[in-house]
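Before the break, one more example. Copy the sequence into your notebook; we will annotate it together after we see the structure.
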Amino acid sequence: YQRRVHGWGQRAKSRSLEAPLAEQLSTGNGRILARISSSPGQVGRADGYLLEGAELDFYSKKLEKKKKK
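Here is what the structure looks like once it is written out:
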């Protein structure tokens, strides 16, 4: 167990988040944009991933436009 914790600490030192993703985490509202990628008809399981880069920009702009209406 201690080796795993030590490994996590070592990787955390060199890890960095993109600015928009870090902004989502720091706002404190508890929302991170993600996309569900599981197949239709799959029961009891939802696979997905966090939005990053151009995809995050696209959906962020889309949500801002929706909020303005």
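The mean pLDDT is 85. The longest strand covers residues 34-36. Try to locate both features in your own notes.
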